[in-house]
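Field log, afternoon session.

UNIT: design team B
ACTIVITY: writing a sequence onto a fixed backbone
BACKBONE:
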C-alpha cells in the first residue's frame, strides 16, 4: 500500500540534516570540480566514508583550524590528530590513506617521466614526500646516467631536529643500485612547508 503524503513528509523530517548537505556538496564537486570547494569542504567529503552517520563539517573545520590546510591535516602526525576533539581511529585512518595515496601518485608521476629535468621538479617531489614529516629525515634519490629516478629511500630518521648520516651506507646503496648520481635531501620539521633547493644536494 503506497505511503501517505504525511508519512513521506515525516520520513524526510526524521532524516539527519547533514544528508542533504552531503548531496549538495557532492553535486558541487562533480559539476564544478575540486577547485570550487574550500579546504574544509573537501575535507568534509574525504571524511564521509569514515563517518557515514555523522555530520563531518564541524570536525573538518576543527581540523583546518588546528593544522591550517587540507595538506597539513592529512600529513599531520597521528598523535596530534588524536588531540582534536571528535576524531576517531576510522577518521585518522582515512586521512592517512589520503596522504599515502597522494605520495604514491606523485612517485608514480616522477617514475613515469624520462628524467628529473629541473630543480623545481625535485623540490615539488620532495615536498609531497617529506614536507610534513614530524621527524627529520635523510632521504636519497638515486639516479641513472639520464637522471632518471631509480629509487627513493629514507636512509635515516632522527629526532625533530637531528638525523645521523653514514656516508658508507650511502655509497654502498648507490653501488648496489648502479646509480650514477645522487640527490641527498633533508627536511626541517619545525618549518614543514619550507623545502627548498638549499635542503637538497646533488652529487
Amino acid at each position: 500500500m503506497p505511503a501517505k503524503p504525511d508519512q513521506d513528509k515525516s520520513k524526510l523530517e526524521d532524516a539527519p540534516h547533514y544528508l542533504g548537505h552531503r548531496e549538495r556538496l557532492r553535486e558541487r564537486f562533480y559539476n564544478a570540480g575540486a577547485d570550487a570547494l574550500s579546504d574544509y569542504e573537501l575535507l568534509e567529503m574525504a571524511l564521509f566514508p569514515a563517518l557515514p552517520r555523522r555530520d563531518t563539517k564541524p570536525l573538518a573545520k576543527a581540523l583546518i583550524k588546528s593544522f591550517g590546510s587540507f595538506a597539513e591535516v592529512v600529513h599531520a602526525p597521528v598523535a596530534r590528530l588524536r588531540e582534536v576533539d571528535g576524531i576517531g581511529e576510522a577518521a585518522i585512518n582515512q586521512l592517512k590513506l589520503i596522504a599515502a595515496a597522494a605520495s604514491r601518485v606523485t612517485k608514480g608521476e616522477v617514475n613515469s617521466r624520462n628524467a628529473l629535468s629541473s630543480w623545481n621538479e625535485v623540490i615539488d617531489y620532495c615536498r609531497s614526500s617529506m614536507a610534513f614529516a614530524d621527524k627529520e629525515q635523510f632521504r636519497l634519490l638515486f639516479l641513472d646516467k639520464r637522471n632518471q629516478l631509480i629509487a627513493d629511500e629514507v636512509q635515516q630518521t632522527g629526532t625533530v631536529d637531528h638525523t645521523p648520516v653514514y656516508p658508507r651506507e650511502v655509497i654502498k646503496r648507490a653501488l648496489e643500485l648502479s646509480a650514477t648520481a645522487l640527490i641527498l635531501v633533508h627536511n626541517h620539521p619545525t618549518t614543514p612547508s619550507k623545502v627548498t633547493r638549499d635542503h637538497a644536494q646533488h652529487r
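LOG NOTE: The CA atoms of residues 21 and 123 lie 38 Å apart.
NEXT ACTIVITY: expression trials, pending approval
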